[in-house]
């Protein structure tokens, strides 16, 4: 596992239970480490600089995907993301080419989803890099729904 610094919180999800880890020894609470499907490391102070150092270290993990958000980092198995879920659903032909797809997100982990959507929406307060990738900027989700339904 990894060392969690004092300014960070860590939660681990195994599909059934969320385990909160405050120190290295807390990993013993998890009965089967092979069942972990999500690790979330969060800044206690909701401070992006707290999480950036951890994110840069976590990017070196090669057997999983690491996604930065505003003040937390999600670590998930490879090929698990919102964009992957959209591809999975469209490959099941639940949606086909005649359907239009809109994506709404507010953080870096939403960018891959924006790439595959016909229209993408983010919020005015989202990070600049996220706003650069979205086709629309909004204040509230209802604006996205209204805009998309008018098309």
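-> sequence recovered:
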């Amino acid at each position: 596992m990894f060392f969690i610094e004092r300014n960070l919180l860590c939660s681990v999800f195994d599909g059934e239970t969320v385990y909160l880890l405050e120190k290295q020894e807390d990993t013993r609470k998890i009965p089967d480490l092979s069942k972990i499907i999500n690790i979330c490391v969060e800044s206690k102070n909701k401070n992006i600089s707290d999480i950036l150092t951890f994110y840069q270290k976590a990017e070196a993990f090669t057997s999983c995907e690491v996604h930065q958000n505003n003040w937390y980092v999600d670590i998930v198995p490879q090929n698990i993301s919102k964009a992957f879920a959209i591809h999975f659903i469209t490959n099941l032909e639940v949606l086909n080419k005649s359907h239009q797809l809109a994506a709404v997100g507010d953080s870096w982990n939403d960018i891959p989803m924006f790439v595959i959507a016909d229209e993408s929406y983010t919020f005015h307060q989202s990070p600049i890099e996220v706003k650069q990738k979205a086709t629309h900027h909004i204040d509230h989700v209802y604006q996205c729904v209204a805009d998309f339904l008018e098309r």
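The chain has a mean pLDDT of 84.
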